[in-house]
Amino acid sequence: METNKKIRVLLAKPGLDGHDKGAKIVALALRDAGMEVIYSGLHQTLEQIINTATQEAVDIIGLSIMSGAHLPICEKLLAMMKEGGLDDIYLTVGGVIPFQDIPKLEEMGVAKIFPGGSSFEEIVAGINELEIKK
Amino acid sequence: MNWHMNRKRKSVPDIKEILSGNKFAGARAIRLVEDNDASAFDLLKGLYPHSGKAFIIGITGSPGAGKSTLIDALIKEFRSRDKKVAVLAVDPSSPVSGGAILGDRIRMQRHATDDKVFIRSMASRGQQGGLARAGKDAVIVLDAMGYEIIIIETVGAGQTQFDIKDIAHSTGIVTIPGAGDGIQAVKAGIFETGDIFIVNKIDKPGADESLFQLQNMISMKNTAKDQWEPKVVQTLAQDGTGVKELVDVFLSHLDFMKNNKIFKEKQTKMEKSYFNSLLKDLILEKVLGFIKTSGEYPEILSKIQSGSIDPFSAATLMSDKIVAREI
Question: What confidence score (pLDDT) does residue B180 get?
Fold first, then answer.
């Protein structure tokens, strides 16, 4: 059969920060780039994110974080992903990310980091660089 | 060390794992059939004999009628009755980019960590056999995983290529007070589709009028004794009002179908439409592939371009030749 593959992304907002305009706009940009975006809403616990990513069989988890808690959140989520056998999923993070934290996130295993000011083109190109379809 | 650089190649899940209800394996299987992966047919072949046990409910209605919130409440009610519940929430793909935003599960996230609940969003994509095919493929996986209740959420009824009746045993149509009079319902053709009409958001003015109009329309339709007469249920999904009654009505519809031999008839019809869409997909792919590699295809194409034959006669000629096995 002719394959009909699309990149599936879970966009999630962990924790207590209540601003999701950015996440919604990124969702639109990814859709316009031909991806399927599952948006799971505000205030997600890491358990919910793991369970949702499992059930939706996504290629990428994209976190949107404005609260400043990106380091502990990404560290914990990556550990849970490894533990839960989700090591075929890439973790990406966007939002308010100070530049000095980028190497720390990369070191941890975050695949792509999109700090405030990243353009849609940069985000789409970054995801395409992961060569998921291959 | 970037551990994601060493990630495993995504593998085809083991049938046994799927049958044992492993969510990771089941989710992978749905992904593979949805992607039309080369492994899809073998997976489905292995799972099919283990399907056919679930009660499949379709929930449809216009955007904003509260379908997702209602399904959230239905999950809660079915869970309180100790049923394993799966949801397949279908949203349209963008015809321009082919992408999609799938947001139905926002309203159901409180169930995301429940062991006995599985929620999957699905984009309609450009499936050749229509969504009925992709939806049914996913339902087979969920059914084989052991979910007793499978709820399919979709927009629109009777007006899209996706006929929910082809994959659901019982269809609920969600409407809200003030969403048009009875004529709207007749016009849209939803009376042929709906088994249960749900007036949601009954805290809004006009809830009783909507109820009466629907009941009126139903009473005007002469339903034979051995046929199900559609029911109307009022709900306020947000606080759960009427949801227990709604579940009772869905289950009584199932009993009615079983007691009146409608269930088997329905299964047969659903199987037939699934087979037809599979056949259509395969024939289209194989025959088109065959035609395109034959020498006649470019020949007739250039004739169309030069104007020596019109596309209608050309298509008739080619398909006739295929049937007569002259190609």
Answer: 62
A134 close contact with B: CB closer than 8 A: no
Q: What is the ipTM of this complex?
A: 0.92
B105 to chain A, closest Cα gap in Å: 6
Q: Match 């079915």 to its residue by tokens.
A: B78
| pLDDT tier, B189 (very low <50, low <70, confident <90, very high otherwise) | low
Give tens-digit pLDDT for B237-271: 999 999 999 999 999 999 999 999 999 999 999 99
Strand partners, B61: B155, B174
Interface contact A105, partner B, CB < 8 A:
no
Strands (E), B196-297: 196-199, 231-234
> Which of B28, B123, B127 minimises the CB distance to A36?
B123
In sequence order, what are the beta bridge partners of B77? Answer: none
Give pTM, 2 decimals: 0.91
Q: Which of B109, B113, B137, B286 to mutate to test binding with chain A, by most A CBs within 10 Å of its CB?
A: B109
The DSSP result for B133-184, as a single string, is: HHHHHHHHHHHHTT-SEEEEEEE-SSSSS--GGGT-SEEEEEE-TTS--HHH
* Whole-number pLDDT of residue B161: 44
3-class DSSP state of B199: strand
Q: Identify the band that residue B5 occupies on the pLDDT scale cut at 50, 70 and 90.
A: very low
Answer yes or no: are the C-beta atoms of B165 and B193 closer than 8 Å: yes
Contacts with A35 from chain B: Cβ below 8 Å: 99
Collapse the DSSP code of A125 into the 3-class scheme (helix H, G, I; strand E, B; otherwise coil) and give the result: helix
Reported as a single tens digit per residue, the pLDDT across B52-87 is 999 999 998 888 889 999 999 999 999 999 999 999
Q: How many CA atoms lie within 13 A of A96 on its CB side?
A: 7
Strand locations in B16-108 (E):
55-61, 85-91, 100-102
pLDDT of residue B132: 64
